Amino acid sequence: MKEKLSDFALIAEIISAVCIVASLLFVGVQIQQNTDIQKASSYQNVIDEIALWRSQIVSNPELSELFGLFANGTLFENSTENDIRRITMQVTNFFGAVESAYYSKKYGLMGDSEWERLESAVCIQLHDYKENFGENNSPSYISTEFSTFLEETC
Questions:
Q1: Most-buried pick from 33, 117, 131, 152 (CB within 10 A)?
Q2: pLDDT for the residue numbered 1
């Protein structure tokens, strides 16, 4: 009887060890799925911010014209001080959205391929910004770290 009881205890121990391993695997899969969802959500939030930025420009003919002047590097030649301020704030909003993505990438909440897409877009905007405001000027309202990143990357 004692041997039977010890056999049952051994079997119970093996079963409980298997259950513990299975539950750890399940928790690991759940954590990975949650991480993937957070990454997708972070990327989607940035894309939504940029889409809103674009729609504001496209839906407003005057702002769209100003952005065209900005993109062509002729903003100062053809705009009032108020127009320059308006487009500067629009461009600053864009840099703010991409800065958010930069920190999402830094903290592992955005993948490489998603970031590369945004990085090329921000470098284009930085080129246009410097063409209008001068090579020694950087966008305002962004962190020093992000500004340094832009200078080194773009």
A1: 131
A2: 64
Q: H helices then E strands: how many in the chain? A: 6, 0
Residue keyed to tokens 């940035």: 46
Phi, psi of 80 (to 5 degrees): -80, 170
**Locus of tokens 């940029």:** 50
The total number of structural domains that make up the chain: 1
Residue 16, CA distances (Å) to 20, 22, 29, 55, 79 in order: 6, 10, 20, 57, 75
**Tens digit of pLDDT for each residue in 82-123?**
988 888 888 888 999 899 999 988 988 888 888 988 898 899
In a domain, 101, yes or no: yes
- Residue 96's nearest CA partner among 65, 140, 55 is 140
The CA distance from 117 to 120, in Å, is 6
Domain that holds residue 51: 36-153
Q: Which of 97, 116, 90, 117 is nearest to 42 (CA)?
A: 97
CB atoms closer than 10 angstroms to residue 68: 14
Maximum distance among all Cα pairs of the chain, rounded to whole angstroms: 99
Q: Is 26 within the bounds of a domain? A: no
The residues near 57 (Cβ < 8 Å, ≥ 6 apart) are: 63, 64, 67, 90
